[in-house]
């Protein structure tokens, strides 16, 4: 015999719809909580800022009062002297530092032909034919000369 479901289908549908509603509303609920926390923290920051500004105004007023009292007390005791005028500060113009000129290269002693054309000082010997004949480049190496 098959087992019968003792729960009415309308009840299971109501529970399922409630669960779907909770799952569907949770992102918006979470975002609403985030916005409330953000607005509360910004409001507290503004209150702290206003309180700090009031405190600084009180300090400023007290400082001004003390300075005025000192000025009035000093003015009654001594003759007022003219203010000291300082000459304007002139900024000197910027100058580019002079560097010594780079050293000029000195010509190395060459064993080439007259006219200053250097010779091939490599370690290889090339022999080949050209249109006019054959050429041979000779040069010296550290161990001697090669042909």
TrEMBL record:
<feature type="compositionally biased region" description="Low complexity">
    <location>
        <begin position="107"/>
        <end position="147"/>
    </location>
</feature>
<feature type="compositionally biased region" description="Pro residues">
    <location>
        <begin position="91"/>
        <end position="106"/>
    </location>
</feature>
<dbReference type="Pfam" id="PF11747">
    <property type="entry name" value="RebB"/>
</dbReference>
<protein>
    <submittedName>
        <fullName>Killing trait domain-containing protein</fullName>
    </submittedName>
</protein>
<dbReference type="InterPro" id="IPR021070">
    <property type="entry name" value="Killing_trait_RebB"/>
</dbReference>
<feature type="region of interest" description="Disordered">
    <location>
        <begin position="91"/>
        <end position="147"/>
    </location>
</feature>
């Amino acid at each position: 015999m098959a087992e019968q479901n003792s729960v009415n289908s309308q009840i299971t549908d109501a529970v399922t719809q409630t669960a779907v509603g909770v799952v569907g509303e949770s992102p918006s609920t979470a975002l609403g909580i985030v916005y409330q926390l953000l607005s509360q923290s910004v409001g507290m920051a503004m209150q702290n800022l206003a309180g700090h500004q009031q405190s600084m105004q009180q300090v400023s007023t007290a400082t001004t009062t003390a300075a005025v009292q000192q000025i009035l007390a000093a003015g009654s005791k001594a003759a007022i002297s003219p203010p000291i005028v300082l000459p304007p500060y002139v900024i000197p113009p910027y100058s580019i530092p002079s560097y010594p000129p780079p050293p000029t290269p000195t010509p190395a002693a060459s064993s080439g032909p007259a006219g200053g054309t250097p010779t091939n000082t490599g370690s290889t010997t090339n022999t080949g034919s050209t249109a006019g004949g054959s050429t041979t480049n000779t040069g010296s190496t550290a161990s001697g000369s090669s042909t």
